[in-house]
What we know:
- The protein is mainly alpha-helical and 151 residues long.
- Helix content is 54%, strand content 3%.
- Helix 2 (10-28) runs antiparallel to helix 7, helix 4 crosses helix 8 (111-124) and helix 7 packs across helix 8 (111-124).
- Bound molecules: heme C.
- Residues 1-26 form the signal peptide.
- GO terms for molecular function: electron transfer activity; heme binding; metal ion binding.
Amino acid sequence: MGYRAIFGSAAAFVLLAGGAWGTANAQDGAAATDDAGQMVSFTQEQVASGQREYVRSCQDCHGANLNDGEFGGPPLVGFYFREKWYPIGVAGLFGFTASAMPPDRPGALSDETYANLVAFILSENGIEAGDTPMPADMAALAELSLPENEE
Ligand code: HEC
């Protein structure tokens, strides 16, 4: 996968994704999230398989409730998580997760599995599942927008 080679460093990835968002936002003004494209979507099946993989590969560090990990993983739910990631976007979240998680074997899971994990995380943050599956592809994900963050 090209993006893993290009964005081998998660920090560089976030900076780059953040920079790209900054440009789009400057053009769109306040309505960036509304105009950025189609709202993100994923299916209940993706959430369910994402949850199964989460329990296997992520829960020890990030916790059963995604904010109560025992081994130093930061919260993956809540206002501050969304405040950090929603402006970066779903492609950025997918890219970071796929290139950096789990820390002992980053990128070891399939793209589809990472998409399922992101679907599960977004679902836990209050976005409802629908009929259209989430693509496991950076370019397609970059077309999708996330809702406004709410407390
Ligand atoms: C060994 C413990 C560990 C495991 C297992 C683990 N993580 Fe993490 N995770 C971390 C740590 C530590 C960070 C913070 C790293 C950083 O900011 O560079 C992190 C950061 C994250 C972030 C970004 C959170 C933020 O606030 O920026 C996401 C999303 C994430 N992990 C998802 C996952 C997923 C999905 C899995 C399972 C495939 C997983 N993690 C497995 C320890 C872990």
